[in-house]
Amino acid sequence: DPILSIPGVLEPNYESLHVLNVERNGNIIYTYKDDKGNVIFGLHDCRTRQNEHLYTFEKDLQAVSCSVNSERTLLAASLVQYTKEGVRNELQPGSKCLTLLVEIYPVNNVKVLKAVDSCIWVQFLYPYAESQPLPQNHLLLISEEKYIERYHIQITQEDGNRVVIKNSGHLPRDRIAEDFVWAQWDMSEQRLYYIDIKKSTSILKCIQFCADESFNLMFEISLDITLSDSGFKLVNFGCDTCQGQEKFGNHQPSLCVFTNHTGSLCVCYSPKSDSWEQITYSVFYLHKGYSKTFTAALRSADSCVTKGITFLNIGYYVAVYLPGHFLHLLNIQHPDLICHSLFLTGNNKMINILPHHPLQSLTGSLILDRCSGKLYKAFLNQSDLMWFLWNSSLDCEKMAALHCVLSCGRDPGFLEGQIIQWISEHVSTCHSFDLIQEFLIASSYWSIYPESSNIDTLLPYSSVLTWNTEIPGITLVTDEISLPLMKVHSLKGYWAKLNSNLEYVKYTKPHLYYHNSMVRREWHNLISEEKTGRRSTVYVRNILDNAIKVISYMETRNLEPRLIPLFQEEDNHQRLLMGLMMSELRDHLLRHLQGIEKKKIEKMVLDYISKLLDLICCLLETSWRKHSVHPWVLHLDRRGSAADFEVFHLMTRILEATDSLCLPLPPGFHSLHTILGVHCLPLHNLLHYIDNGVLRLTETTVVRLMKDLDNTEKNEKLKFGIIMRLPPLIGKKICRLWDHPVSSNIISRKHVTRLLQNYKKEPRNSMIDKSSFPIEFLPLNYFIEILTDLESSNQALYDFEGHDSVDAEFVEEAALKHTAMLLGL
């Protein structure tokens, strides 16, 4: 199966059968000759999958073009005669091209619209709503003599349901365009693109046909392309036979315009080329203000290019296909970096299955194989992209394939599960970018992109900002270009989005992508204030309330119990980060998404952050299942296994990925990470990881360490090393949980420091009552008496601060025990 899957839509039953046109509603018009030589026109209904006979010409003619109106009551056809030699598809001098308008409901009158020596193509305009029959139809006639006319056809009903042309003797018409050298019809959007040449400059223009029967010139732009003013080329005016069946060689230029609902506007161009070693093609990203010119090396110097380049529009991608040589999937939504586009060459099985014949790209991702006459629909195949992802060796291929898979959008849950399995196997194989970062950012982006296409300029699409690594087989040159000059100011739908993109390019410097730099600064400030006890209680409460919303939202979306113990503890630091990110991201979207209500934006923010957290949980759970980690890993009194170390390694990579982007982690992550670190690392490595911030000590973890581990020599070293690294507020609480001389010593030191920090030496009575001390040791007795006096004078203060059982007597006992230990008594 190829990346571009191509299920047959219609296959010919007769040797002479070929597709003539695909209408806006997806119906396919085809023609063939019966045994008597009659030309038969048929329609394949895309909804019912049934074929319908339209009309039969009992003459030896060849169909050039055909179109039927939306009600299937009128048929327009352009036909030419066979030459005496029997050669088809070529208009010889002296032959006639007949353009006919036929009443087919029921079959009745035939009107001749044109009888000329040059080829004519026909195309009915389709209304945007097909529920009500229109009293007037509109037909485009495109002449090889470089003009386009629109006919206005009034219809009426007679004798019941019989539909006839009203005033068929004179049909009003108006001139749409003239003196053009290239034209393209966009059937699905009812747009006409054409190029005329003024002072050796190619000017691209676009006409939009509207539902109210009017039409507007929407924009024009000059393009740096080479077209001859004596040339003539049509694109997508049906599957023409006069030009469509030519022998395409390496001298034929190719030009196409592609759009999609996001407001993208691309012109794809491949100039004439005589080289057998390389081929050049350009994509003008008009909605971005730049063009990219690609030069692709061919498979070998003697590999003649016998088939032309085909450009295909596939959702968020444009495919550039040269049969037998390469397939290039170009990301048109985010084309800045070449690594986001997939370039396949050579004998890759995913491109070898594509037709190795001249192809024609039609509206709506349809492809016509000119040799076989088969019609295909192209789309990205997720299964084959996943296969490619598993087997790709280059970082650029992994990056591009990952984004291709995520953009497909079908069954995202199953898809993400497959990607996560791939990441767990290849987390250390990417050197040009962080695989976990890229997955988190890209998958979160696509999770909410369907809710608003304006998100593409506000949320990061990738974690990679620059790419300097070469892509084998292809080179790239980027040039700035002028933006399209819009001719209409009151815009809706696609045109409003395109204009928004153009305004963004004009006036937005730098870009508006959200990033967590502000969150990082505020988060660090709040943590610092926590250590000093100067935090604003109301402000912090609001931030933590945001975190509660995120966690509650996640719980409503995921009702199944989690395999690993996450979201089961407070972890205020991560909750603060979570709440800050929600606050900042919500404000960011509210500033720039005008016209979207606040509730919808808040839901988008909740979707985005909960998606991030859920992906992290899924990464961990996949690794947990893969390595069959036993639940007793959560017990501290055991040694780590190889499975524990694999999960610990993945958690370290996740922490590294999220830390550089300042993304929140699920509460409980740091506790689980530290417990695995205790299992898997020697003491000096463990403390080194803590000192360098790889392991983050949480109160939950430390309490478990103090309670669950006994006081063996090894565990005492671990506990002491951890206590010495705790923040003061947590350290004071933890020391009281460890009944050990070391903790008593630490508590005593802190108590003495607090008492003596404002102590001023005063004259004292040198006589000490020795009977009040259990041991006669004057320096200690004198010191304890000073502490007792200080405690008495500050009793109210210490009662308020809650210094319970820590007093001078406790300090004395701790000092004696410590001295006894030092003396080995």
Automatic annotation (TrEMBL):
<dbReference type="InterPro" id="IPR028010">
    <property type="entry name" value="GSAP_C_dom"/>
</dbReference>
<protein>
    <submittedName>
        <fullName>Gamma-secretase activating protein</fullName>
    </submittedName>
</protein>
<feature type="domain" description="Gamma-secretase-activating protein C-terminal">
    <location>
        <begin position="613"/>
        <end position="720"/>
    </location>
</feature>
<dbReference type="GO" id="GO:1902004">
    <property type="term" value="P:positive regulation of amyloid-beta formation"/>
</dbReference>
<dbReference type="GO" id="GO:0005802">
    <property type="term" value="C:trans-Golgi network"/>
</dbReference>
<dbReference type="InterPro" id="IPR026172">
    <property type="entry name" value="GSAP_fam"/>
</dbReference>
<dbReference type="Pfam" id="PF14959">
    <property type="entry name" value="GSAP-16"/>
</dbReference>
